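for ur thesis appendix - Golgi apparatus membrane protein TVP23 homolog. copy paste whatever u need, i formatted it the way the template wanted (i think)
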Amino acid sequence: MLRQDSNDDTEDVSLFDADDEMPRRPKKSKIKHPIASFFHLFFRVSAVIVYLLCELFSNSYIACVVTIILLLSCDFWAVKNVTGRLMVGLRWWNQVDDDGKSHWVFEARKASPPRKKVTSEAESRIFWLGLITCPLLWVIFAFSALFSFRVKWLAVVILGVTLQGANLYGYIRCKVGSRKNLTSLATSYLGKQFLQQTVAKEEQTVS
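the 3d part is after this line
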């Protein structure tokens, strides 16, 4: 069933309703989708390696740029449409309704009894590790290219930040819900931190 967020035109929907009605098995740590897990890391890690080493093995700037762009594009498509769905049960996309209005849709499998689990803990760790680490590397590359005046690489680095950052943002939205939930989650976290610091100070004062 669809639930629409009227503030930011997003929808949080269940993923694979038919699967949700099936009994689920206890979570296992083994990798159930080895090919998806491999390609989840292959394209993004390869793009990073090519960016770091291409000038050592090739004098052609155009060939390096084209190779990196192809790897980043393949990574964006694979992570957005395949690996997220298989490895963690999440997916996001944009759709246009009959009125021509754009909607962002975020999918996540509903929680169900732990009798059958389509995803595994190991795959989840691989997915989130790759999803978070690589965009951070591209942000570092962006600052490095800017401060070292490697202007010719800025466009490629910005593309890496944009494509991989978009997937990271989309899957975080899938995981924790709408923008309201993100705001409340941040507020709750800051509130807990403030409360812990206040209690610690009071305990120090008493002692």
